[in-house]
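The instructor's notes for this session suggest beginning with a concrete chain rather than abstract definitions. Hand out the sequence below and ask the class to guess, before any prediction is shown, which regions might be ordered.
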Amino acid sequence: MTSLSKSVQKKSKTKSPNQTQDDVVYCHIFDAILEQRLPPGTKLNEEALSEIFSVSRTIIRRALLRLSLEQVVVIRPNRGAIVAAPTIEEAKQIFKAREVMELAITELAVENATQEQIKQIRKLVTAELNAFEKGDFGSGIRLSGEFHLKLAEMANNAPLLNFQRSLVSQTSLLIAQYEVGNNANCSLDEHTILLDAIEAGDKEKALSLMAEHLNHIRSKLSLDGETASNDLHVVFSNVIKSNALNKA
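After discussion, reveal the predicted structure:
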C-alpha cells in the first residue's frame, strides 16, 4: 500500500470501498478546483503531482485526462496540463448551459425527490452554512457545488448528473477567475427556500427560484478577482502532511 493509500484510506471507505488510486487523485484535484484552491491557468506538473500523491505519473495522467473530459483541465500537447481558464465568451456559454441544465434538473427533482434525499440535502445546507460562518470559504464553495449535484441526483437522470458535474466545476473556475473577494457562495437562504419548494412539489415556484438563484450567481462576476496559490505543494499540503505522518 502506498503512502497515498494510507493517508486517504479512511476517507475512501466512507465514499467507496472500491475506490482506486486514480479515483483518489482525481477527487483531490477536483475538490481543489471546486474549492478554488487551484486557480485557473495553474500548471499541473505531472512530476510534482506524482511526488505529492506518491503514485506513478501514469496514474496522474489518467486523473488529468478524466478531468479534461469534464473540461476543467486542459491538456496541451508537449506542454502539459493546466487548470482551464475560460474566456468571457466561454463564461457566457457555460452559464447558458448551466441555466438550461439547472431548470431541467429542478423540474425532474420536483417529480422524483424522496424524503430521504430531502433530509440529506438539508444536512448539506447546514454544513455549508457552518463552513461559511467559520470562514472556511473553500469548503463552503465546495458544499455549495455539492448542493447542486445533489439536486441532479434527485432528478434521477444519469446523463444530467454527469453534465452537471462538469458545469458546476466549470462555474467554480469562473467564480475563481472573475469574482471579487470571497463572496462566491450561493445564498444559503436561496438554497433552503428552493429546497422547500421542491419538497412541497411546487414545480412553478421551484423553477422560478432556480432562475433567480442562477441570476444571483452570475451577477456577482467581475473581471477582477483574488488569486489563489498556484503552488501545487501549497494546495495539497494536507496530503503531504498525511504522508509524512504515515511515514513517521
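Then share the key points. Residues 190 and 213 are 7 Å apart (CA to CA). The chain is about 70% helix and 5% strand.
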